[in-house]
């Protein structure tokens, strides 16, 4: 890219060239920026604003009592989160599993961190531990729901984020493998929260035992398809090397302590045994440093991001899908992830719009069909009417003709009769005449004879 | 701990604890920044101003590059917005810059609707973001944010103050976008005129209630510079991408017979101030304001328009699910009603037509009844005539018979007297 006169790296600009002839989008035309523009300062602006806002983090701690959870938390944050006044979960066991939270504010280097520690007194401590994970699931879901509601309000003010961003799950150092409870819990929660499994009280195992134990645990985790928190890939080679090294040491085996002991002139935190001191921050003794660096110094932001972009989005899409199209059907599927359909990529409102459009077109079609049927029936009826009209007309014509015929016949007969009458009358008249003539003649003759 | 540190989480119930050593979460801002840098940033600038006022030149000067831009003509029938996106990189910061120019602004004879395409464009970007936000499966962090973060309003340096088009447009835009007014082509205004012009413009803006963007003064790191810059608004800018030799350096300037106007010389114009404020100091704040204020306002109005409320009739908050379910119920009821309506309409139509057809049938029937009756009458008539004829015939026959009988008798009578006579003669 080249350096400028003042030694700073030349910035560059890329511009998309228009469409190619075949219609595909053009490539990038890269040009160098000639001078210092200044938006390289943007990250500093972001930095300042974030410090002003302050940071929040919600950490959940789960495990049977006596696994050293409180000590570990205190060690991680180098503060008396759990103290005689605020006892740890193992000292607060009630009849049923509780999920309780406490908030602390810690400051370092101008950065304010509001830490919410959520613990689960009573988890795994009963004789019958069936469903002891349910209160945990309910808690996590309720925090998601709170956030969803806050995010969905019309008037959004601050959106307080109390979603659980990381869950440290403590595994008892039995040395053999995961317990059924461990597997159940992780299976049910791996899609709701980032799970970081930890081997507690790692100082009860030798390195070889620890290695074997870790191996066994990872095998079982893979067998049961449990998705624990994964370190993000980076482009940086160095970082990737570190990430891979850490991945080889999962799950992390930790030891906690806030007692300061002097070892070889150094003041370290550790646990004093007759046979030596197990140092908390010694990488050869346990993985505490890795955990702390990973959890706090490098991946805290990523844990928040994964919670926001993956776990929360899963919750949200499941929740919203239940409200939409197949309303009643989906309510049954609430617990499971529905298959992605085209309708899922829309908001419920857009879905309703589409539904409305579908309905309108369906109705139109129905209307058209009904119209057609109607028209057809009317045509039929009209045709029938016309036919019967024609028929009746025809018959009428016929009858009329018939009558006319008879009329004519009658007329004919009458004429004949008249003719006959006339001719007979004429005849009669002739006869009469004849008769008259005859009688006259007779009379004449009579008269003659008399002489 | 500094005495003037503000407790950010004052509203939360919490314990304040002291740390016993270096924990390391002071790297949190760095973690956040490194994530943002990896993601890359988006920045969208809208330039509103008359054709030829120097918008493209200013953009080129601001970003030290020549963005491809055709010269616009004055003959656009309406205002059009032309967005162009560029990928810029400086140090390790990737910036997706979108510059939107208003083409044809101020060229029409009737400028009454000039602001509308601009408002529509801004709203469309908000709408796009809102749509993504409301989707069931969404990817907000991957989404290219096209919402306008800053509107540079170019004021013509002619005249003594703002044109009415300027006031109207800015008033319509101020609740939707951050506005920074700039006096363009400031090299045509003398220093004293410039001061007067600035004062006049600001007072007109204030008296008309136009809310322009104020550089934030809460952050101590930038409070001072921002406060002073606020007093220099509107910035009088000059743009140039030509290099002119001044002294022994090549600088960006405009060469006139009477001297050269150096773009980066703060005595000549406020270009440097604009660049400082816009890019180097307040870019993040502009983005934040757009998201937290302007976008939220748009979203609130849009949701209220669609009938969403936060509280029910008894002031209880609705959960999202309840809201959607209520909407859905309403919607389904509405659909059903429409269906019913259509059916009813159809049923009544059918009834109507049935009645009509029945009428027709009746008519036809009646007609034929009538004809039948006529026919019957005719027949009767005919019968009568026939009978008459019969009778006549019979009468005639009787006459005939009678006459014949008479004749027969007469004949007999005639022949008898002959016989008598004959007998007498004998």
UniProtKB/TrEMBL annotation, chain A:
InterPro entries: G_SEPTIN_dom, P-loop_NTPase, Septin, Septin7. Residues 326-351, 432-451 are annotated as: Disordered. The keyword Plastid does not apply. Residues 53-322 form the Septin-type G domain. CDD domains: CDC_Septin (cd01850). Keywords: Cell cycle, Cell division, Cell projection, Centromere, Chromosome, Cilium, Coiled coil, Cytoplasm, Cytoskeleton, GTP-binding, Kinetochore, Mitosis, Nucleotide-binding. PROSITE patterns: G_SEPTIN. GO terms for molecular function: GTP binding. It is found in: Chromosome, Centromere, Kinetochore; Cleavage furrow; Cytoplasm, Cytoskeleton, Cilium axoneme; Cytoplasm, Cytoskeleton, Spindle. The keyword Signal does not apply. Residues 432-444 have a biased composition (Basic and acidic residues). GO terms for biological process: cell division. This is Septin. The lineage of its organism: Eukaryota, Metazoa, Chordata, Craniata, Vertebrata. Residues 326-336 have a biased composition (Polar residues). Its main location: nucleus.
UniProtKB/TrEMBL annotation, chain B:
Belongs to the TRAFAC class TrmE-Era-EngA-EngB-Septin-like GTPase superfamily. Septin GTPase family. Residues 39-305 form the Septin-type G domain. InterPro entries: G_SEPTIN_dom, P-loop_NTPase, Septin. Residues 321-406 form a coiled coil. It comes from Champsocephalus gunnari. Keywords: Coiled coil, GTP-binding, Nucleotide-binding. CDD domains: CDC_Septin. GO terms for molecular function: GTP binding. This is Septin.
